Amino acid sequence: MKKYFLTFIALFSATEVLANQPKNWQLSFQDAASQSMREIVNFHDKLLLPIIIAISAFVLFLLVYACIRFSASRNPNPSKRTHNVAVEVLWTLIPCLILIVMAVPSFKILYKQDAIPKADVTVKAIGYQWYWGYEYPDENIIFESYMVADKDLKENQPRLLAVDNEVVVPVNKVIKVLITANDVLHAWALPSFGVKRDAVPGRINETWFKAEKVGTYYGQCSELCGIKHAFMPITVRVVSEEDYQEWLIGAKEKFAKEPLEKDQYKKLASK
Fold first, then answer.
1. Helix H or strand E segment including 184
2. Which phi and psi (to 5°) does residue 23 adopt?
3. Residue 35 contacts by C-beta under 8 Å, 6 or more apart in sequence?
4. How many Å apart are CA 248 and CA 255, to the nearest integer?
5. Smallest Cα–Cα separation from 172: which of 241, 91, 122?
6. Cα–Cα distance between 238 and 147 in angstroms, integer?
7. Which 8-state DSSP code applies to residue 231?
8. How wide is the angle at C-alpha 245 spanned by C-alphas 243 and 246, nearest 5°?
9. DSSP reduced 3-state for 56
10. What is the pLDDT of residues 49-99, one digit of tens each?
11. Cα four-point dihedral sign 85, 87, 89, 92
């Protein structure tokens, strides 16, 4: 009995260890790590979910009531009424009002996601079959990010989510992401940040996030793109400003888009 109770609790609770990635038997959202995701979760939990539960309960009540009240045994002579104007007006107006109540906060969230503030860091994500490529246009950095195979996984690296080269960004900074694809449709999605944008060949989509917690966050390609669609994970490591600057120094040398002279390395490192 205790085993089943603990399993039930696990369905509805999240642990800190797994807070930034999907969990077995998870029914809820991943823990929010940005203001945008918190607003999405609040919109779902405090508005959408109560409305859905109320409508479902009301419809279930009507079904049970109709089955009992209008059964053949209770109504040997069926009613010949064809319509009821008052009822028809109500079942038209009430859904309209419910949709308006849902639409207003929804539009606010969508507008905020599309209104990109001034970026502190810009990252370009390019979808390929079946991996991601990344560029830091302002830093002369370009690299590819492949899923780590099962046999190469290290301790605490999640299967099907860990990558060889992570995107690294500073905490509490506005990160603008330019998203495109090289071959077919892909989608760059990070649930903890409330981010999902299609990667379309020949077109650049934009999104942004501002991570509020240091940690490693996982996402996946969310657009069916071929036989290895499930093997296109996204890993973003959020670090302090000091650690980010230190990572930049090494990344500018390791992932330099163009060959740099020694004096240029010194200049970049001093930024």
1. none
2. -120, 155
3. 210, 212
4. 10
5. 241
6. 19
7. G
8. 60
9. helix
10. 999 999 999 999 999 998 888 887 887 787 777 788 888 999 899 999 999
11. negative
The more confidently predicted of residues 71 and 107 is 107
CA distances in angstroms from 25 to 7, 48, 210, listed in the order given: 9, 22, 28
Q: pLDDT of 196-247, one tens digit each?
A: 999 999 999 999 999 999 999 999 999 999 999 999 999 999 999 999 999 9
Contact 142, 133 (CB under 8 A): yes
Could you give all domains of the chain from N- to C-terminal order, each with its CATH number?
35-114 (1.10.287.90), 121-269 (2.60.40.420)
For tokens 């038997």, the residue is: 25
Q: How many CA atoms lie within 13 A of 178 on its CB side?
A: 14
Rg (CA), the chain: 25
Q: What angle do CA 167, 226, 193 make, to 5 degrees?
A: 35
Amino acid letter, residue 119: A
Long-range contacts of residues 199-204, Cβ cutoff 8 Å, at least 24 apart: 199/125, 199/126, 199/127, 199/223, 204/178, 204/179, 204/180
Sign of CA dihedral 105, 111, 115, 121: positive
Q: Is 2 helix (H, G, I), strand (E, B) or coil?
A: helix
Identity of residue 63? L
- Block residue for tokens 């959202």: 29
